[in-house]
Amino acid sequence: AGLTTADRHFSAERLGRGAIGQAGVTAAPFEAWMDNWHMTSRAPAGADALSALDLFAGGDGFSYDLTLTADGPLVFQGDAGYSVKSAEGQASYYYSQPFYEVTGTLTLPEGPVAVTGTAWLDREWSSQPLSETQDGWDWFSLQFADGSRMMGFGLRDRSGDTYTAATWITPDGTATPYPDGALRLTPLGWAEVAGRRVPVEWRLELPARGVDITTVPLNPQSWMDVSVSYWEG
Predict the structure, then answer these.
(1) Over the stretch 13-40, which tens digit does the pLDDT of each residue have?
(2) CB-count exposure of residue 215 (10 Å: 0-12, 13-18, 19+)
(3) Distance from C-alpha of 100 to C-alpha of 141, rounded to nearest angstrom
(4) pLDDT, tens digit, for every residue of 70-79?
(5) CA–CA separation, 178 vs 181, rounded Å?
(6) What is the DSSP string of 70-86?
(7) 97 falls in which pLDDT band (50, 70, 90)?
(8) Is 16 helix (H, G, I), strand (E, B) or coil?
(9) pTM beyond cutoff 0.85
(10) Inter-residue contact 165 to 204 (CB < 8 Å)
């Protein structure tokens, strides 16, 4: 679990065992939970379980209690959900729900904050590791004023090459995947974070869709201090 503000970043992690009643998952109706953390479907029987969710998680000094309602379909990344990650052929299965409208409450040390906005859910899994020479993974989700969305990522290789992929998503959920090389990612700014030099500002170019933008983080110190630590701005 993580939460970022302009001047602070919070993160938390929990592990649990189902056999002692600490955690569990049910498929229908869908619910995944651990202690008081939970993701619970509000969707009617027979509907996509992820189309309506209640979500709660938190940690030391923060929590979020959110209601998510999708106004578009699930999007399958890559080739019908098969997302290639390297020139050698490593891949994952990968889908997104990029159409959530959100209401809820963030709880911070100074008190509760009512929020509204949009959200993006990703689900990705694989039986393969990445290529053994890949040691950096930069991922982006973009939401545009006309209702379009874009997913893009680059996997950095020790040789200096970067394997890229992108998906353009129209407002009705139609997805067009783009292969390696179609998306160009250029780091423009770096920050010292948790003893590491991390790229935090980027130029993203997808010429096929006329995209040429620069991303700037709300908070460059957005370090997820968990078992597999990483930067998430």
Answers:
(1) 999 999 999 999 999 999 999 999 999 9
(2) middle
(3) 13
(4) 999 999 999 9
(5) 8
(6) ESS--EE-TBTTEEE-S
(7) very high
(8) coil
(9) yes
(10) no
Rounded CA separation 107/101 (Å): 19
Give the number of other Cβ atoms within 10 Å of residue 147's Cβ. 13
Alpha-carbon span 132 to 129, nearest angstrom = 8
pLDDT at 128: 86
Q: How confident is the model at residue 129 (pLDDT cuts 50, 70, 90)?
A: confident
CB 148 within 8 A of CB 174: no
What distance in Å separates the CA atoms of residue 185 and residue 138, rounded to the nearest whole number? 9
Q: Which residues contact 125 (CB under 8 A, 6 or more apart)?
A: 92, 93
> Which tokens belong to 109?
């040390």
Six-digit token pair at 23?
Answer: 């955690």
pLDDT at 196 over 90: yes
Question: CB count, 10 Å around CB of 137?
Answer: 13
Gyration radius (Cα) of the chain, Å: 18
Q: Assess contact for 107 and 63: CB atoms under 8 A.
A: yes
**Per-chain mean pLDDT for the chain:** 96
Q: Is 68 helix (H, G, I), strand (E, B) or coil?
A: strand
Listed residue (10, 50, 3, 2) closest to 28, CA to CA: 50
